[in-house]
Design brief:
Elements: E1 7-13, H1 19-32, E2 37-41, H2 47-57, H3 66-91, E3 94-98, H4 101-110, H5 116-126, E4 134-139, H6 142-146, H7 160-176, E5 181-185, H8 190-206
Parallel strand pairs: 1-3, 1-4, 2-3, 4-5
Bound molecules: thymidine-5'-diphosphate.
The site of thymidine-5'-diphosphate has 15 residues, from helix 4.
């Protein structure tokens, strides 16, 4: 086979943007339409990547070096892509992933000031260049989103200015390649957001 045949959708956005609700709505609608859907998340998705998830998110590791943080997210991503995402795409499945490479570019590249290019290249190396076919960005004001978070993890506990930089980063990244992104205001009605996402995915799937 000359590469993946399935369809890879990533969801991105700040904290409390309502990604999980929209991911499950989309996954259900696609399954009802007859697609085989794999729902997964980053960091995580395999036992080793879930172990890395614990290290990067636990407040226990407060003060983790930013480069070590970027490497750990990339390592988890490499493992997740090799074991879960690529095999699913090779089977022809639709993969719906909670966060992917752009989270690293936004949270580590912009948020930690490590440089978007370096961080992107690191993940491209880790994943042998796998990019989503479509990335849905749910845009939310961090003040609104963070108010919905109950028990903040290490990243969620960062100051508001950090989350504002992350928000601006997602919008910037999407603007650079609009054909592969759908940016939606997360304050819209849940049903309206769900149908905008399904419309776009249906169009993209039909155009393959
Ligand atoms: P999670 O609980 O999955 O957050 P959410 O429900 O908001 O998706 O935690 C993931 C956290 O890790 C989130 O704060 C974003 C951050 N993150 C990065 O900083 N870099 C990355 O590459 C990824 C995938 C996540």
């Amino acid at each position: 086979m000359d590469g993946p045949r399935g369809f890879f959708i990533a969801f991105e956005g700040g904290e409390g943007a309502g990604k999980s609700t929209q991911e499950s709505r989309l996954a259900r609608a696609l399954a009802e339409a007859g697609h085989r859907v794999v729902r997964t998340r980053e960091p995580g998705g395999t036992p080793a990547a879930e172990a890395i998830r614990h290290v990067v998110l636990s407040p226990e590791f407060d003060g983790l070096d930013p480069r070590a943080e970027a490497l750990l997210f990339a390592a988890a991503r490499g493992e997740h892509v090799a074991r879960i995402v690529r095999p699913a795409l090779e089977r022809g499945d639709v993969v719906v992933c909670d966060r992917y490479l752009d989270s690293s570019v936004a949270y580590q590249g912009y948020g930690r000031d490590l440089g978007a290019e370096h961080v992107r290249d690191l993940s491209l190396w880790a994943t042998r260049g796998l990019l989503p076919d479509l990335t849905v960005v749910l845009d939310v004001d961090p003040q609104v989103g963070l108010a919905r978070v109950d028990d903040p993890d290490r990243l969620e506990a960062e100051p508001l200015a950090y989350h504002q930089a992350v928000r601006a980063a997602f919008v910037d990244i999407a603007a650079q390649d609009p054909g592969r992104y759908l940016v939606l205001d997360a304050n819209g009605h849940v049903d309206a957001i769900a149908s905008a996402i399904l419309d776009r995915v249906t169009t993209d799937l039909a155009g393959r």
